[in-house]
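To whoever picks this up:

The parser on our side crashed when reading a file containing two proteins. I've narrowed it down to the boundary between the first structure block and the second sequence. Both blocks are reproduced below exactly, byte for byte. First block:
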Amino acid sequence: MLQTTLVLLKPDCVQRNLMGQVIARFEAKGLTILGMKMMQLDDALINEHYGFLADKPFFPAIVSYMKSSPIVAMAIRWANAVPTIRTMSWATNPVDALPGTIRWDFALSIDGNIMHASDSLETANEELKRFFKEWEIFDYERLDNKVL
């Protein structure tokens, strides 16, 4: 089943110039990027996205981190995109990530873990609306999927 999900390349990914390497992994796998934009998050968007952590003592650090540089938001489509991207990224804490996954290869800590990936199709639908306007996501057929 084709799914569209949200991926955020977090500030440490942007600041360490790893965006292209992470995006290349999605493209090499065959996933289709339907929308992509760099944006600076504000308090309102961070609170909406991470509100479930607002009562945690580390929440101010999350806010500071997520505002430390722009992020890159992507809408990505593929068959079973949600579990596929979650497997490619693996555990939130890179210490628990499997070798060859994005977080194993690039993340330095649980606080700087390179990316966010929606954890379910329902969450993906909510998060996509949070980060993209309807007209910012493009539906197109890739040339490599066409018979010439």
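<<boundary where parser fails>>
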Amino acid sequence: MAMKIRLARGGSKKRPFYRIVATDSRMPRDGRFIEKLGTYNPLLPKDSEERVKMNVERVQYWLGQGAQPTDRISRFLEAAGVVAKKERNNPQKAQPGKKAVERAEEKAAKAAEAAEAPAEEAAEA
């Protein structure tokens, strides 16, 4: 059985509230789970202690049993000091889009033309 530690959504529309659960990976997101390990309330301020609550002992137990945390849960565990911090790198995210690149090229071309025009006028005089 492939175990996951992941978020199960609760709360009403536009008011999310999540349970941190240990579940079989084949179960639906909000479906049956084996154990509730904590809660996550994204509406609270980031520095609030109530934002993420976890039973760290039980999380460590499930990690020892081979459960794989999702990316968001692994970030919570890194912040709590339970798991070693992973190096993440997404170089595509930092690159501008196609239209932004085109605008930058047009702006550079206009700047080059503007720089050449005064130099030509000075040469003629």
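After patching the parser it read the second block fine. Residues 91-124 form one domain. The chain is about 40% helix and 25% strand.
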